[in-house]
């Protein structure tokens, strides 16, 4: 009887450890997902800013080239 009780306690303890480890793993996965989502948002914002900077410079570059062309033809 004592041995059965001891084995039952060990099983309960092992189940608690497994449950805790599973909860820790789920929490870590959630943190990773949140981190990846934040990283994706930041990357998209950077790309959008870069795209806006590129398109805003196009007009200036065209004006410079036109002024160079016009000054050379005069």
Description:
This protein is an all-alpha fold. It has one domain (1-74). Helix content is 97%, strand content 0%. It is built from one helix and no strands. It has one helix at 2-73. The chain starts with a helix and ends with a helix.
Strand portion: under 5%
Low-confidence stretches: none
> Helical stretch count?
1
- The end-to-end distance, rounded to whole angstroms, is 109 Å
Could you state the order of secondary-structure elements as H and E?
A: H
- Provide the gyration radius in Å: 32 Å
Number of DSSP strand runs? 0
Global morphology: rod-shaped
- Measured as a percent range, the helix fraction is over 70%
How many individual domains?
1
> Which structural class do you get from the secondary structure elements?
mainly alpha
Largest sheet features: none
Mean pLDDT: 90
Please describe the topology of this protein.
Blueprint: H1 2-73
Task: Give the key terms.
single chain; 74 residues; 1 helix; 97% helix; 0% strand; rod-shaped
